[in-house]
Amino acid sequence: MAQPTYEWRPPERGWREQDLFDLPEDGNRYEIIEGSLHVTPPAGYGHHELADLIRIALGVTAPTGWRPIREAGLRTPGGNLIPDVTVLKPSAPADGMWADPADVALVVEVESPNSRRHDRFIKPALYAEAGIPHYWRVERGDFGPVVYRYQLVKDVHYDLLGTVGPDDPVPVDEPWPMRLDPGAWPR
């Protein structure tokens, strides 16, 4: 068993954003939720490919100044999260590592076996608390990706706007008017 090449200890208090900079760049996703460190192992190629295609589809339709970003850090009241895709508003700073929720119009999570519980229950509550107006959760179905579209209600929770499957592309208004077509993404 390989030994770490550095000495590492968890903080003697709750985890904070600056602690993330001391962690290894090993492919794991490190997030902080309510002062606790959450580690998710690297996702598979299919997960990354689908997230890239969603980012590209959003980017092709984005109005000037809007930026879909893969794995951008997001500050939330309860910590630091890393959505699979984050859509930054034109008012967002041009460069950075951790986005402010006020600069985010949409977050997208591509569900995988290692992230299912977080993507369905924990992260939506934290995104809602942060005031993110829209949340999409994408599942890989037997016949292609299915997008569950949510909208923030009264800055408290998300209501389901609807689902979009690979055989039913529809026009949507979030984060801007566009045609959402999961059938154009890989199966």
UniProtKB/TrEMBL annotation:
GO terms for molecular function: endonuclease activity. SUPFAM superfamilies: Restriction endonuclease-like (SSF52980). Residues 18-172 form the Putative restriction endonuclease domain. It comes from the Bacteria. Keywords: Endonuclease, Hydrolase, Nuclease. InterPro entries: Nuclease_put_TT1808, Restrct_endonuc-II-like, Uma2. The keyword Oxidoreductase does not apply. This is Endonuclease, Uma2 family (Restriction endonuclease fold). It comes from Micromonospora mirobrigensis. The lineage of its organism: Bacteria, Bacillati, Actinomycetota, Actinomycetes, Micromonosporales.
